[in-house]
Amino acid sequence: MTDLLFSYLVRDSTSDPYGQRLYDDGKVESYRVSRLVKSASGAYQEQPVTPGWYPAATLNEDQLAQSRAAIEASGVRGMPAKVTGSANNTSDLASGEIEVMTGDGLHKMTVKPWYPGGDTGRRLFHLISQLNNLITQSLA
Question: Which residues are bridge partners to 21 per DSSP?
Fold first, then answer.
């Protein structure tokens, strides 16, 4: 059985939820509410799906090692369970849910409102950007 390394999910009232999960075997899932389907005309159109987590990619060993290092360097495992964001960053009070595996099990965090500010926000966004870049590389 594989363990979750890191996960984030952002929900707000103005757009569809989005997020990703990364597992210790390199598998990546994306949170989806729709998928792109090629129509008879050749154009791609969004088609609704049951909201949830769907397979998206698999990281190779090097990308997985880089992901583990980024998670460790971010300090996310030591962040508090509740992080207060800045209401100045958005008019819609979105919330973020973050999960990361620690030596003591799964550490869950809530960030509300989303976007987190200050040093914590910079570290979380940097981590998510690094992981997204590695996932994009795995798809190339």
Answer: 7, 29
